[in-house]
Amino acid sequence: MELYYYTSTDTMRYIIEKGDIFATNIRYMNDSEEYTNGLEELFQLAGNEELVNKWLNDRGRNDIGTEDIKQTFTEENLEKCRRNMDYYSISFCQKNDLLSQWAIYAKESGVSIKMNFENDLYHFYTDSEEKGEKSQWELAPEKVLYFTRDSMEDEKDEYERQAFLILDKLYARDFKDQTEGKDEVWRYVSTFVKRYDFYQEAESRLVFQPTQTAYYPRVQYRMDQKVLKPYLDMICKDGWPIWEIMIGPGFNQQVVYNSVEHFLNHVEIKVGIRDTEDYLKRIEEYWKPYAGELKGIKIYDDLHRHIMDAKAANMRLEAAQIAFDELMQQVCNFIQEDDVCSEGLKKYIKRHRFMNKGIVLSSSSIPFIY
Fold it and tell me: In angstroms, what CA-CA distances link 63 with 56, 57, 132, 162, 238?
């Protein structure tokens, strides 16, 4: 799953050097009504007996009934859930180089950090209130479901499709072993439900439940627009899986590009590369869009032979980074000078530079309009 984190260059530096990202308390997200919208939409959905029965029949669920659902989704439980929304979230976008995201989160040549979440689960941790202990979670990002009844009057098929997905989450067969009760599931799933009006944001989230870890996490605070926002300083084991950094369409885009390039060449970074095989996989992925065109060209075929040899020899990561940095430069130089290679390929390597640390550095093609 490829996701994008739009942010400032300063925050990017922190993420890459420290391996941390702030997870903000759901009550203090940019939309102040965000955390209550999901709760209320799920409450209305649970009361729609016709739609719930249709879902039960479609999914072949005979282990629950509409009365079971009504017993959970009561006015009393709704108020209880409103008072207890102790969740922390990190937001990603499913789309790269999206103008609306640049405008909101990364003005004046911010960056879009591409992360490739390939595994089913990732290990996250932060400091806990218990000295010497860590609060730990194993989870992966999930897509936000854009779901608001009053905004979807003319989108009845889409409303039903989203409703079924939400009910699937609420009554997943393995949820009963992961939560304290259905009201907890209600609260958790509601953090992934957002107003349908915002569907173009294409958001995914990591949501951390403090109650689902052995030690309650240590909450910190940061000032944002004159508000003290509670957050958790989340670390991804082995580093966040960062594959690319795209420089946004600011007036000083080239200067920012040069500064990030210099930064990546001179600091120790944490980008989720555990060993040489991880590093070599990134090289193979870099060339994949033009693999058909390049196959049969000697210098490119030699590069892949060296990759196979490095894997067989269990080459040390540091040695591989040095050796393949030179090899990659040789291939790129050949492509730029060769008359046979397509203009598309030449433009690709010019706009997407593979850095020796295993990250691709690129620039947005959107014109600067701010």
Answer: 9, 11, 43, 22, 41
Predicted local confidence at residue 5, as pLDDT = 97
Q: In angstroms, rounded to a whole number, what is the distance separating the alpha carbons of residues 233 and 240?
A: 13
Q: Which residue has the tokens 């990561």?
A: 317
The rounded distance, in Å, linking the Cα atoms of 257 and 259 is: 5
At position 39, the amino acid (one-letter code) is: L
**Distance separating alpha carbons of residues 15 and 12, to the nearest angstrom:** 5
User: What is the pTM (predicted TM-score) of this model?
Assistant: 0.91
Per mean pLDDT, which of 22-31, 143-152, 280-289, 337-346 is the most reliable? 280-289
- Contacts (Cβ under 8 Å, ≥6 apart) of 163: 45, 48, 51, 55, 147
DSSP string, 182-238: HHHHHHHHHTTEE-GGGGGG-EEEEEE-GGGSSSPBPPEEEEETTEEEEEEEEEETT
Which residues sit opposite 221 in a β-bridge?
A: 230
Q: Which residues contact 147 (CB under 8 A, 6 or more apart)?
A: 41, 159, 162, 163, 166, 193, 194, 196
Dihedral of CA atoms 133, 138, 141, 142 in degrees, nearest 10, equals -120
Identify the CA nearest to 88 among candidates 198, 205, 200.
Answer: 205
Q: Tell me which residue of 332, 247, 246 sits closest to 283, measured CA to CA.
A: 332
